[in-house]
Amino acid sequence: MLLRAHGIEIELPAGWDGRIYKRPSGDPTLHAASFALPRDDGDFGSGATARMPHGGTFFALREYRPGDGLVPGAGLFASRQLPLPLDTRRFHPRALQVGRRGQAGFQHFLTWGERPFCLYAVVKPDVRAAVVASGAGHQVERLNRILSTVVLQTKSQ
Fold it and tell me: What global pTM score does this model have?
């Protein structure tokens, strides 16, 4: 399924759910998951991750508005690319927006053109592992394939 809106494009595989939206007076956000997304949710998917099944994967790509100290390409937003391939060792329970048992998260801030973004991803492995992310190798591999299809315009459309 091809999603395209607000200068963001992605190809999602069969069985995945996704949407690109922009709240009134807000900035573009992409949500995608290997399970059905809730109709309404927070920008970082707190509702989706609350109902995430074992084996589930969720990610958000949220754009920020420059100003008030946020300078595209500087500080937290200095990176100029998605950090592909993602590494399971970078997923950790302490990186979650909302801590939930059995889940591990990842976040990365970047600037594309002059557009600042945060990539936030959450996995919930099928298996119980001493380190949650160690059981999520296949989920992270699939996430890498999906994220490799992201196309960002240098300006929001």
Answer: 0.92
